[in-house]
Amino acid sequence: MLAFLRDRKVRGYIFQLISITLVVAFMWYIGTNTSHNIAQRGIRTGFGFFNGTAGFGIDDSPIPYTPSNTYARVFFVGLLNTLIVTFVSIVLATLLGLIIGVLRLSKNWLVRKISSAYIEIFRNIPVLLQILFWYNVVLRLLPSPKNSVDFFGKIFLNNRGFYVPQPALDSTTITMTVAVFIVLVFVFFLNRWANKRHELTGEEFPVLLTALGLLVIAPIIGYFVGGANFDFSNPKLVGFGFIGGKHFYPEFVALTLALTIYTATFIAEAVRSGIEAVSKGQKEASASIGLSNYQALKLVILPQAIRIAIPPTINQYLNILKNSSLATAIGYPELVTVFAGTTLNQVGQAIEIIAITMLVYLVISLVVSAFFNWINFKMKIKER
Amino acid sequence: MAVYKQIEPRKAPSSSIGILHWMRENLFSSPLNVALTVLGIALVLWVIPPFIKWSIIDANFKGTTSASCTGDGACWVFIKMKMDMFMYGFYPAAERWRVNLTYGLFILVVLSFKYLKHSMTKILITGLYFIVGYILIRGGIFGLEGVFYNKWGGLMLTIVISAVGIVFSFPVGVLFAFGRKSDLPIIKSISVTYIELIRSVPLITVLFMSAVILPLFLPDGVTFDKLLRAIVGLIIFESAYIAEAIRGGIQAIPNGQYEAADAVGLSYWQKTLLIILPQALKVAIPNLVGIFISLFQNTTLVMIIGLFDLLAMVQLTASDSHWLGYETEGYVFVTIIFWVFCYVMSVYSNKLERRFNTDLK
Fold it and tell me: Which residue in the set A103, A129, A318 is minimally distant from B338, CB to CB?
């Protein structure tokens, strides 16, 4: 009678049935509790709150924003700030991580020791502690705007943030940007053509040199085409503060610095392990067929090292995105601070707001990892 | 017969031995290296002497009030006077021996592991330790004065949260790891959804969720205190990462092991617990320690939802009206504590990695 219970398949079905029942029962249980609690506490539901007036100010907004705007706009400002700080930190952390990772393998003893000291020190300090340290200690120690540290009278550092000159938006700026863009597109196709030719004929084309040359020449041409009136908006001290130029708020600076410095240690380790994982034989083989050091690096070592280093680096990029939410501890107005923080406190609809916030991170994570997985797939060794 | 006598070998030229040779090889082998060395020395000189001057030479160690902090250096008097806050938070002074006793018992438990053979006894002892530790710290029975959670703080709270977090998120992680590798489609999809969902959101949103939404999930009258909610959030979050690390370990196990286990007629649970899990853990241990380090670092986030862990103590103590403006010392002190804990764990993980590296390959 019970013999059928010994069948692995039947047991599998029963086991699954039990777990799905448990999950559904659990969901139903918390669902009824929640609706009861919401009704009892008089919490509103739905997404109507998006149209309400926010009523609080946001200093550091990439788009025009006033307290009379809606929560929808608050959400958008927060999202943009999250994306900005993530993007900037990813770029800086990649650069720093690459440099440290390569220096870690340098022949120079001192440089090697300094870079491994850097890695060991900064990856073992919680990133939140680093954010608070930069914000509450280092940036607070900077002088007041009147006594700013200034570089060439153009760049100012003070306890209200960093002020740098910003290119004014006029015809020359546009022509120069367009010129650089055209060069980038051109180099992309040039590179494809050179690779194809290299595969067919074995002839090399100096793509890198050409690209660098064009990148110098093109903006100069753009400069004259656009009327040669390239101008900066320079920060100026007026009264107690600065006007003009680009203002980086201390919150942004502290967050970017901490995320960059912390994450760069992990990227450096990924780069190092990638380079170390390429076996010695590869280097010797490339030397034996007469490749120069540069050729060996470019054609043999790096392509293999990068493939190993990419997956852990993608993970670190996603960590930057997630850690950017720690901004809420210092009040940088990104998604968690203004939406899951201030908006939640004012509106009180915790379930909707936390769900939306999580969903946003989920979607960004999925998009970022899909993009980099695509790159990873493109870079994979095609076995024939 | 001619006698040939071997003459003493000449000494190697001074350019290839000794410190000068080492320096030439390692510091000045090329123009680029010379430049890097100079830059490196400049960097070291720029960072280390000022720090030593600030933290030791110019620092103030003696005294009991902020008035005794003169000069430009660090005011370690502040740390000295606030040490109890950093270590125990608001835990009543007369009861602190209970926390210390729990620390002492921990050392005993770890030492006893050296002599215990069976993993079952180890698990039992760990469980027992947690119960005893909970009774000791929380109190309320056996004549111990009850110390409510809002009195817990400082390093003690950080350690409690990480210890409970590690011990509870581990089995949950194992469960989801095997769920994800399961042949049963429903179990698998539940596990995949959980792991991927949690891994793609920031910890702070999970903590907000458990702080704000969890109370709504519970029936009337049932309440959690803030600390427990934070720990639940941490466990939900970290178990997803642990699951992934263990899945990595499971994937490293050759198929033959499964087939051999099936061939000798082990059931699913026997196969999983006796054959697969021990080997998977062995492979996953370095990654697991990495996750434990990040869990320990992540406990600082409970500060954002209003608990007073070690990091939160800095702002709290530096806002004391007698000690305004000593945040720098506080942060440096706390940084050193966190750094030592994490560094010890990472050195330990490297050791384990080397020890386990030889097998299975």
Answer: A129
Asked if B177 contacts B246 with a C-beta cutoff of 8 angstroms, the reply is yes
Rounded Cα–Cα distance for residues A152 and B150 (Å): 53
Mean pLDDT over B326-351 rounds to 88
User: Are the beta carbons of B212 and A344 separated by less than 8 Å?
Assistant: yes
A149: β partners: A157
Chain A interface test: which of B162, B217, B271, B299 (most A C-beta within 10 Å): B217
User: In whole angstroms, how far apart are CA A301 and each of A20, A100, A194, A294, A311?
Assistant: 50, 18, 20, 10, 17
Same structural domain, A254 and A322:
yes
| ipTM of the shown complex | 0.86
- State the Cα–Cα distance between residues A62 and A68, nearest whole angstrom: 17
For residue A298, the 8-state DSSP code is: I
Of A31, A36, A74, residue with least CA distance to A55: A74
Candidate from A12, A124, A321 with C-beta closest to B339: A124
Of A100-114, B104-118, B260-274, which gets the smallest average pLDDT? B104-118
Q: How many domains does chain A have?
A: 2
CB contact under 8 A, B186 and A37: no
A362: in domain: no
* Residue A134 near residue A329 (C-beta atoms within 8 A): no
Count, residues in chain B: 361
Q: Which residues of chain A have pLDDT under 50?
A: none
Residue B339 to residue A12, Cβ atoms within 8 A: no
Which chain A residues are within 8 Å of B37, Cβ to Cβ?
108, 110-111
CATH number at residue B219: 1.10.3720.10
* Alpha-carbon gap, residue B166 to B177, rounded angstroms: 16
Partner B contacted by A45 (CB < 8 A): no
Q: Quote the pLDDT of residue B3.
A: 81
Domain that holds residue A129: 96-168+231-335
